[in-house]
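Our consortium's second objective concerns turning raw sequence data into structural hypotheses that experimental partners can test. To show how far this objective has progressed, the report includes one record in full. It was chosen at random from the queue rather than selected for favorable results. The single chain below, 324 residues long, was entered without modification.
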Amino acid sequence: MYILAFETSCDDTSVAVMQDDVCVALSTRTQLEHDVTGGVVPEVAARSHANAIFPCIDDALAEADITINQIDLIACTDRPGLAPSLLTGLVVADTLALSTGKPILKIDHIESHIFANFLERTESDIIFPAVVLTVSGGHTELYLWKSIFDLEMIGQTHDDAAGECFDKVAKMMGLGFPGWKKIADLAARYTGSFQWIFPLVLLEKDSLDFSFSGLKSAVKRYIDVQIATPEWLTEEKMMQIAFEFEQIVTDILSKKIQRAVEHKWAHMMILAGGVSANSTLKNKIQKISETIQIPFLSPKRPIYSMDNAAMVGIRAYYQYQKNI
C-alpha cells in the first residue's frame, strides 16, 4: 500500500510517500524567511506553503518512482497548527483525494510527532504503558500512552512551550530562528562550568505541569543587566547564557518525565517533537533511563523529530490498518 502524506502545520512544507510503514520518499522545504522576521508569520507561511507544496509532491513521487495513480491512501495534518498553513495542505490533499477517488485520513499533528517513534521501528518496539514528552515550539506536554491509540494527557505547560521559550530567548540574544538550534549551537561552544544563574522552575512537588514564563523573564533581566554594562556582554558571556539556559530547560524537561514515569509506573520513556532533536535533552533522559532501568526511545533520525510528512504517513498507516 502506498500512502501520500502532507504536513503543513507551521513553516515546513513536507510531503512523504510511505510503502506500508516504510518511508520511501520524503521532500521537506523549510521557510528560511522566518529567520529574518524572528518568528513565523502565518500569512507569509501560507504563501510559502502554496509555492512549495507542488514541487514537494513532484519530488516525493519521483523519489519513490511511482505516479499519483498508484497512491492508495492520502493523509494530511488537520490540527493543531496555524490555520492558514493547515488550510494549504488540506485543500491540496482534499483535491487530490476527490480527483483520484482515493480515501483520505485527517491526522492530529501531536499524535504524528509521537508516532514518529515508529519510523524505522516495529510496533513491538514500543512498550506500553509509556510516558511521552512532546516538546516543540507550540507544545510541551506529557502523555501516558496506554496502548497504540489511547493517549491521556497528564501534564502541560501553563504558559510558553519550551520551544517557544528557546525562540524568545534566542531573539533576545539576537541569534535568529529557530531558537533551540541557535542556542544549542552556541551553548556547545561554552567550556565553563554550570553556575545556576537561572531558576529551576518545577512548580508544586508532585506537579507534572510546566511553566517557562518565569525563566524567560529571568533571562531577560540578566541580559538587560549585561547590556547596561556593554563590556560585560562578550562572546564568552553569550555562550554562557546559552549554556545555562539550555541546561535549565533540559533539566526541567528531564526531571518531569522521570517524575511522570515514577508516578504512573510506566514501562518506557519516549521523546517527541522538534526539540527532541536536542542532544543535551536526549543525553539527560538517557542517563535517567539507565539509572531507573526504564527503556528510552526518541525518533531514529533528526528529520523525524522536525515537522515532516513521514510522521503523518506512519500515523495514517497504523490507523488504516487497524480500521480506527
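The partners drew two points from this record. The chain has two domains: 2-115+305-321, 127-299. DSSP finds eleven helices and ten strands in the chain. Both points have been shared with the crystallography group to help prioritize constructs.
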